[in-house]
Amino acid sequence: MKWLAVFSGAAFLTVSGLWGNNPAEAQRPVVPGTGVLLTEVGDDFEDPQWNYVPRDPKSTEDIDENQRGPMGRTTNGRWYEGVKRGHPDIVQRVPVPAGGLPGSTHGLLMRSKFTGIPGRPSGTMHQDDFVANVQYRLKRRLDVAEVPSVVTRVFLPPVDEWENRTGPHFGFRLALETTAMVEKEMIFGMKREEMGNEIYWPGMFVEFESKSSTKKDHDYAYWRIRSNRRGGDFRGPQITTTGWWTLGMSVTPDGMVHYYARPGVEDLTEDDYISSQLPYGYRAERFRTFFFNVCSADDGRRWSTSFIVDDSHVYAARPRGSLARRNGSSNRR
Length: 333
Fold this sequence. Notes:
By secondary structure, the protein is mainly beta. It is built from four helices and 20 strands. 43% of the residues are buried. Residues 48-82 are annotated as: Disordered.
């Protein structure tokens, strides 16, 4: 493992002992991985027949409103290309680096050079999405009363192998729904606001500050958390070591999102707690899925940092109906 410059984390602590601006009325956070493992979704990448069919060129709806369907999918039906931003240039099952989960032999490598419009480098940071197929395989969304959570392992390579760029490099995110004021299209191009279904995407990012651009003596990295009530990202724990990390997020019935991270591959515990938030001021009502972001400079020259994920799973502390019956023997904690 390669260590990054160490700075005191105390500067980021609030008076409540949490990272960032934390709402005071939080329910007790639930450690991600609590409850029943939903075996119909998520992935351990151990199937030797695992493969991704990209169906290039990828979507860039966020840039030019061009989806370029059909979308890419994995042969096991558990992952698909993000419609909004398209898939990473490289999505490949690979042997896991040393120090991974006991018994695990393979994980998922994601990497991109053209994160914007394919073949047309912009020189502006863009990102690709690789989305877990959760709501469609379950044939429904998870209500927050079921207390859904997601846990993943991610391998951060040595710092000298990172894309030499200050900014976000990798994201681990949820897709949640709530009821809020949304803008609706009317006839003749008119718009109006009314109550409707709003989708939003809280998460955690690897944020890198390269010494080449900061002119500091050391590179620096930390977990950037999305987001507080006002929609602003804030600094989470510093990343003081590369190698394997375990990340998790849970959603409780009060609509709050709870963030956890720890170096290594051990299960998350209460000690790995970062923060509890109502991102954008929204109270979550339903859980749709989770996904990964891969970010790069999109300059046509540099590849993004290579990240490998493993054992990415969804849990429910209080599963309802058929989920409870089908997964009742998969309890954890």
